[in-house]
Amino acid sequence: MPRKSKENPDSLLIFDSHCHLTDFQFAPDLNAVMRRAQQAGVREILTVSMNIPDSKETIELCQKFSGLYCSVGIHPHEADNFRSIDIQMLKDLCIEPQVKAIGETGLDFFREFSTKANQETAFRAQIELAKMMNLPLIIHIRDAAFAAMAILEEHNYFKGILHCFSDGRKLAEWAVEKGFYISFSGNLTFGEKRLVEIARSIPVDRILIETDAPYLIPRTELVVGKRNEPSYIRVTLNYLAEILNLTPKEIATITRDNARRCLQIA
Ligand SMILES: [Zn+2]
Ligand SMILES: [Zn+2]
């Protein structure tokens, strides 16, 4: 009889659809972080870029670990530094086989670290790039649902993921109808009734899970106050299983299949 491994005892295969492994907070111990992810059953990860140098770095990182994919793009917080020449640079990076998406892009009118006008310009340019490359978008929306919907409608491109979903029902319904996927992070586990109801209302074949690590630690005693990392996705996975009345294994399989379909991973 084969010996049962202590690692990943329930043999889940989990896809973390959004994190930032090139963040400086992972520099001291990335190998250990990746080992813990593996032990927790996280076998595939999309590591998301914030700007041009980071896009190059994420590609290099993907070459070091199996099951690691990346997006290339410019975060709305960095939109003040966006120049139109950046699009050509991002386009050149899309040749790399690990590049599965454009982003993260979108609009963040909550923090407004870049001007609204610059965020919109960078968002529009990245939508057109995604369209040209036939890649999904990784979209960040904060306090900007109507502006983001209007821009996406204008460009008539509805392929990708609304990441770290925390918005209202209206955006969720619109996104599902258009064909987007919706990704829930640790903030779902905060138990906000509105968000739980939205998660219940979305067809299961459109739901993804993510950590957004090193940010957004899920609210559990076990990990509170620490840096977030992909292995903690189990907290969100278990919570989603509970509210959807499915098993963690079913949620892992469904969200992994969804991520692979959305990111066109064969
Ligand atoms: Zn984001
Ligand atoms: Zn992010």
UniProtKB/TrEMBL annotation:
It comes from the Bacteria. NCBIfam families: YchF/TatD family DNA exonuclease (TIGR00010). A divalent metal cation 2 binds at H140, H163. Keywords: Hydrolase, Metal-binding. InterPro entries: Metal_Hydrolase, TatD-like, TatD/YcfH-like. This is TatD family deoxyribonuclease. The keyword Hydrolase applies. One of its GO terms (molecular function) is metal ion binding. A divalent metal cation 1 binds at H18, H20, E104, D212. It comes from candidate division WOR-3 bacterium. One of its GO terms (cellular component) is cytosol.
